[in-house]
Design a protein that fits this description.
Bound molecules: ligand C2E, calcium ion
Order of helices and strands: HHEEEHHEHEHHEHEHHEHEEH
Main location: membrane
Strand order of the largest sheet: 1-2-4-5-6-7-8-9
Radius of gyration: 19 Å
Number of helices: 12
Shape: globular
Organism: Marinobacterium weihaiense
Strand content: 15-25%
Keywords: Cell membrane, Coiled coil, Membrane, Transmembrane, Transmembrane helix
Subcellular location: Cell membrane
Distance between the termini: 58 Å
Helix content: 40-55%
Protein name: Cache domain-containing protein
Length: 272
């Protein structure tokens, strides 16, 4: 067979278009990356509208590969397919809790840290993984937020209700990520006991000109408020987004208008 050049463009192409041999190569590289400590968490601040304060953040994984930084959309899908997301996800939990504990030791106001949980991780063993991360780091459970998506919960509704309950018994909080993009019906907001709803960037983008996006976003905020669930707007990029969300009663904002995801050291400077 003709030898194909393996430049990193090819290796880091989307999972779907990649050759079988490239997928195997990438899988091996991901396994090595975990062993060698090439993953890093960036933290994106979330600002509280009521007090204009940085109160929360979301941990987002990056891969410092020898060829440069690789973004999660490039490797998380393959990590999920191969099951590598389980050890990677456990590392993310540990690292986010370790960092969160370190920050909370020096910060006057409590800071919550949110971690993304993949569908593959969302199974009964997640409870002991979360417990282990909390025990080993001493991080306060109520400051840890687990972000799950609608499709994760909807694939097994009874199982999800049970698992969410066990997780909340540990004292951690749960956020529904990318809200409005999946197929969860509003009725499930009652069955799944949730602490936060993250309004998907797709709706925020249309504010204030798109009447549908405006209507959907205000409705989500109203329903959440009535159910005692906090709202987080993602992808807040402009002053107009902010003005609208503040007026609509959204609780927290996350997006480039404030900050991009930041390396831990830079995030620390924002905290001070
Ligand atoms: P997500 O959970 O929806 O995370 C939000 C994504 O939007 C992040 O992309 C963030 O950098 C980006 N973002 C934030 N503010 C803005 C904005 O104002 N405008 C725009 N256009 N984008 C904004 P990122 O870091 O590339 O992560 C992509 C996805 O990868 C995440 O989407 C999440 O699904 C997944 N992911 C990231 N870290 C982890 C992880 O540790 N574990 C798992 N399982 N998935 C992760
Ligand atoms: Ca998220
Ligand atoms: Ca999201
Ligand atoms: Ca998203």
């Amino acid at each position: 067979a003709k030898e194909r050049g393996r430049n990193n463009l090819e290796l880091f192409a989307p999972v779907m278009t990649r050759q079988v041999s490239d997928r195997l190569l990438l899988e091996g590289r991901l396994r090595e990356a975990l062993k060698r400590g090439e993953f890093e968490l960036y933290y994106q601040p979330q600002y509280d509208f009521a007090h204009n304060r940085l109160t929360d953040c979301e941990a987002l994984i990056r891969w410092n590969s020898p060829e440069g930084m690789v973004m999660p959309d490039t490797f998380i899908p393959l990590a999920e397919e191969t099951g590598l997301i389980v050890p990677i996800g456990a590392w993310v939990l540990q690292e986010a809790c370790r960092q969160g504990e370190a920050w909370n030791r020096v910060s006057v106001e409590p800071l919550s840290v949110a971690v993304n949980v993949s569908a593959v991780q969302f199974r009964p063993a997640l409870v002991s993984e979360v417990q282990a991360a909390l025990d080993e780091t001493g991080f306060d459970a109520c400051l840890l937020v687990l972000e799950v998506t609608e499709s994760v919960l909807m694939s097994d509704i009874e199982g999800s209700v049970q698992l969410l309950q066990e997780l909340r018994e540990l004292g951690v909080r749960v956020a529904l990520d990318d809200f409005g993009t999946g197929y969860a019906s509003l009725a499930y907001l009652k069955r799944f006991v949730l602490d936060k709803l993250k309004i998907d960037r797709a709706f925020i983008m249309g504010i204030p000109d798109d009447k549908d996006d405006v209507a959907i976003t205000s409705s989500i905020i109203d329903i959440a408020r009535n159910l005692n669930i906090m709202t987080v707007a993602e992808g807040v990029e402009t002053e107009a987004h902010c003005a609208f969300l503040r007026k609509a009663g959204c609780n927290l904002a996350q997006g480039y208008y404030f900050d991009k995801p930041l390396p831990a050291e830079e995030f620390m400077r924002r905290l001070q």
